């Protein structure tokens, strides 16, 4: 009987640890929609994190805009554009009105 209980407990422990290694893009808290871990992760998965891609509205807020581009060794953004910093440290030059990404500077290339 003790062996049977040990086997059952071991099996349930193995089954529960398998859930810890579940696929990263499993259903999110809103049931069925993928769960992402930041702008870079979502953009790579959905395909918009590239030159010519369109930054989603949810990432166009002021909290992402780089206001002190001098400090980050960036060139001044052209009129109608601003720099946006991604969660992985990349800098995206984004059109303010459309959200189209004009360029991406990798964090390592910017010196940060």
In order across it, which strands form the biggest sheet? Answer: 1-2-3
Helicity range: 25-40%
Q: What is the CATH topology descriptor of the largest domain?
A: Nuclear Transport Factor 2, Chain: A
Distance between the termini: 61 Å
Largest sheet: 3 strands, antiparallel
In the predicted model, the low-confidence regions spanning at least 5 consecutive residues are 13-28
Whole-number average pLDDT? 78
- CATH level 1 name of the largest domain: Alpha Beta
Please indicate the percent range of residues in DSSP E strands (runs of 2 or more).
5-15%
What's the architecture of the largest domain in CATH terms?
Roll
Q: How many structural domains does the protein architecture include?
A: 2
The Cα radius of gyration reads 21 Å
Count of separate DSSP helical elements? 3
- Principal-axis shape equals elongated
Task: Describe the protein's topology.
Elements: H1 2-20, H2 39-46, E1 81-85, E2 91-95, E3 101-105, H3 107-110
Antiparallel strand pairs: 1-2, 2-3
Compact overview of the structure:
It is built from three helices and three strands. It is of the alpha+beta class.
Verbal overview:
By secondary structure, this protein is α+β, with helices and mostly antiparallel strands. It folds into two domains: about 1-35; about 35-110, inner membrane protein cigr (Nuclear Transport Factor 2, Chain: A). About 30% of the residues lie in helices and about 15% in strands. It is built from three helices and three strands. The protein has helices at about 1-20, 40-45, 105-110, and strands spanning about 80-85, 90-95, 100-105. The protein has a three-stranded antiparallel β-sheet. A hairpin with a 5-residue loop joins strand 1 (about 80-85) and strand 2. It is elongated. The relative contact order is 0.13.
């Amino acid at each position: 009987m003790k062996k049977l209980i040990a086997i059952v407990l071991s099996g349930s422990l193995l089954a529960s640890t398998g859930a810890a290694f579940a696929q990263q893009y499993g259903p999110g808290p809103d049931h069925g929609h993928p769960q992402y871990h930041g702008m870079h992760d979502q953009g790579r998965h959905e395909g918009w994190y590239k030159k010519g891609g369109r930054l989603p509205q949810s990432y166009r807020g002021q909290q992402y805009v780089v206001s002190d581009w001098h400090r980050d060794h960036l060139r001044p953004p052209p009129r109608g554009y601003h720099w946006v910093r991604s969660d992985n440290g990349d800098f995206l030059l984004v059109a303010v009105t459309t959200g189209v990404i004009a360029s991406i500077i990798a964090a390592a290339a910017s010196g940060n």
